[in-house]
Automatic annotation (TrEMBL):
<keyword id="KW-0929">Antimicrobial</keyword>
<dbReference type="GO" id="GO:0031640">
    <property type="term" value="P:killing of cells of another organism"/>
</dbReference>
<dbReference type="InterPro" id="IPR018077">
    <property type="entry name" value="Glyco_hydro_fam25_subgr"/>
</dbReference>
<dbReference type="GO" id="GO:0042742">
    <property type="term" value="P:defense response to bacterium"/>
</dbReference>
<dbReference type="GO" id="GO:0003796">
    <property type="term" value="F:lysozyme activity"/>
</dbReference>
<protein>
    <recommendedName>
        <fullName>Lysozyme</fullName>
        <ecNumber>3.2.1.17</ecNumber>
    </recommendedName>
</protein>
<dbReference type="GO" id="GO:0016052">
    <property type="term" value="P:carbohydrate catabolic process"/>
</dbReference>
<dbReference type="InterPro" id="IPR002053">
    <property type="entry name" value="Glyco_hydro_25"/>
</dbReference>
<dbReference type="GO" id="GO:0016998">
    <property type="term" value="P:cell wall macromolecule catabolic process"/>
</dbReference>
<keyword id="KW-0732">Signal</keyword>
<feature type="signal peptide">
    <location>
        <begin position="1"/>
        <end position="17"/>
    </location>
</feature>
<dbReference type="InterPro" id="IPR017853">
    <property type="entry name" value="GH"/>
</dbReference>
<dbReference type="GO" id="GO:0009253">
    <property type="term" value="P:peptidoglycan catabolic process"/>
</dbReference>
<keyword id="KW-0378">Hydrolase</keyword>
<dbReference type="GO" id="GO:0005576">
    <property type="term" value="C:extracellular region"/>
</dbReference>
<keyword id="KW-0326">Glycosidase</keyword>
<keyword id="KW-0964">Secreted</keyword>
Length: 273
């Protein structure tokens, strides 16, 4: 799908065959639950579980060559993109999908609107390892707006893996090896479909808890790290640096606030390379 093509938003669809297999093993009894999908967004569960501990010194981080951006979802509704650009936004990630049964009803307005306002933009997928396999969700994501275009204005898609909002089991019923395998299936499938490895959005605490602090993805997948504090803190294993830091769940831009770890030309490089 081309970068500027308007998208037809889909309604919720039935779960895939992989969900049936999970249910038969007792991993996820009952039909898939998407009742929270409209409000699930990058960091919503990280803020709920890990808390908010302040914001960075913006003058310091701007001086270090960081580039301001944000991320949005259907939770924000229609976004005033000229205003966001005027407030300093240079890039944005937009939620496209969740699991294999939900698409963001605001995706077309948000994704295409950001492009029209001159922002570098990308799409992200809210992972649901409890309802279907990683490959199935990567295909669903690409088929519903999460692809990549080598136009220098489109960031590679991002996989949002964070605490399960539907259960007290924050790792979606999977042990560390099973979670790593699920993420690898998603990443490999996305790379085959698009030619780019997806970015991985997570927090260090979730990554340690649910993947056993796996170092398997640091070589190929850009890291988009969430931590709402004055300092970014320790990174998950395998990554020497973050590409993006989500430092606050609210601020001057719509949605969550982010710094790209580099100047604006590095944002364009990530979009194009």
């Amino acid at each position: 799908m081309s970068a500027g093509l308007a998208l037809t938003v889909l309604s919720a669809v039935p779960a895939t065959a992989d969900y049936s297999a999970l249910s038969a093993r007792g991993t996820t009894p009952g039909p898939p639950n998407y009742s929270l999908a409209e409000d699930n967004r990058a960091g919503s569960q990280i803020a709920a579980v890990e808390g908010v501990h302040g914001v960075p010194d913006h003058g310091r981080y701007a001086a270090e060559g960081q580039t301001l951006g944000h991320d949005v979802s259907g939770h924000q509704g229609a976004v005033d993109w000229p205003a966001a650009a005027g407030a300093g936004a240079k890039f944005v990630y937009v939620k496209a999908t969740e699991g294999t049964g939900f698409t963001n009803p605001q995706f077309g307005q948000q994704y295409n609107g950001a492009h029209g306002a001159g922002l570098v933009r990308g799409a992200y997928h809210f992972a649901r390892p409890d309802v279907s396999g990683g490959a199935e969700q990567a295909n669903y994501f690409v088929d519903n707006g999460g692809g990549w275009a080598g136009d220098g204005r489109t960031l590679p898609g991002a996989l949002d893996v964070e605490y399960n909002p539907y259960s007290d089991d924050k790792c979606y019923g999977r042990d560390a090896a099973g979670m790593v395998a699920w993420i690898k299936d998603f990443s490999d499938t996305y790379a085959r479909r698009t030619g780019r490895a997806p970015a991985i959005y997570t927090s260090t605490s979730w990554w340690r808890k649910c993947t056993g602090d796996s170092p398997a993805f640091g070589g190929a997948n850009p890291l988009w790290l969430a931590r709402y504090a004055p300092e970014i803190g320790p990174l998950p294993a395998g990554w020497a640096h973050q590409s993006i830091w989500q430092f606050a769940d609210a601020g001057t831009l719509p949605g969550d606030q982010n710094y790209f770890n580099g100047t604006e030309d590095r944002v364009t490089a990530m979009a194009g390379a």
